[in-house]
Amino acid sequence: MRKNINHANILIVEGEGDRSCLEQLCSKLDISPKILLPVTPKDLLDNAYNSKQGVYAVLKDALEDLRDSHLKRLAIIVDADQAKDGQSFQTTFDTIEQRLQAFDYRFDSQSSIEHVV
Predict the structure, then answer these.
(1) Are 43 and 26 in contact (CB under 8 A)?
(2) Which residues touch 12 (CB under 8 Å, ≥6 apart)?
(3) 46, 50, 59, 103: which is deepest, by most CB within 10 A?
């Protein structure tokens, strides 16, 4: 079941350790949780796993929220992992890019994301 996170700016991370790290970093940089909310896949979806695959699983709903609701900014952080594990940087990048393209988002030449209208 999908959970409702009523926040304008979310950062999806793979797991609790990543969230804790980001919360500490935000605290040190004096970035209020009111400005940026780090969340895990389990925070967004009951049956999600906190992992890279979990981020991929919740990305569709998050992109729908970005297009159709209160969500204004969405960011994700995932590990690129090792090529020997079948999860190289390019594999990770391609997987994310495919999911973004389904919602008419694309990477520009500077690797930032823009919405194609």
Answers:
(1) no
(2) 39, 40, 41, 44, 55, 58, 59, 62, 74, 75, 76, 77
(3) 59
Q: How far apart are CA 51 and CA 16, in angstroms?
A: 10
For residue 9, what are its two tokens? 């700016």
Q: What residue ranges do the domains of the chain occupy?
A: 9-115
pTM of the model: 0.81
- Give which of 33, 76, 29 is closest to 51, Cα–Cα: 76
Task: Name residue 45's beta-bridge partners.
Answer: 2
Whole-number Å distance between alpha carbons of 86 and 69: 35
- 67-84: per-residue pLDDT in tens? 877 888 888 998 876 666
